[in-house]
Amino acid sequence: xxxxxxxxxxxxxxxxxxxxxxxxxxxxxxxxxxxxxxxxxxxxxxxxxxxxxxxxxxxxxxxxxxxxxxxxxxxxxxxxxxxxxxxxxxxxxxxxxxxxxxxxxxxxxxxxxxxxxxxxxxxxxxxxxxxxxxxxxxxxxxxxxxxxxxxxxxx
Length: 155
Fold this sequence. Notes:
Elements: H1 59-62, E1 77-80, E2 92-93, H2 95-100, E3 111-114, E4 124-127, E5 129-130, H3 132-140, E6 144-147
Parallel strand pairs: 1-3, 2-4, 3-5, 4-6
């Protein structure tokens, strides 16, 4: 005969009865409910975070700090001139157009124009910051760069 549904059974030793702790002396797991006597792990409401090292000085505090971290640093979304050739000549490009084109994912503190690559045709660019070299390259082919304020950075 073949295999029948009624013949199916779990593998021997794979099924265990749940350990019922704290259910009296006869069970062998009563009184302290397998937690031993006293100590942090015997208490109720035990919640030890994964980074806790038992009171030892934590690793993050043992390792020395290095360098300087400027908490006032502003991070700009970068756009290079070479990426702007996809736009129509003489068009006006602002933060929204750059986002729609996929050149900028997040505005961060604003958009900064850098001079990497060449611009093929004149454009009017509205950005929050621009390098001097980028402004020169845009002006050289008849375009212009308009610096907009930080409050106009759409989040």
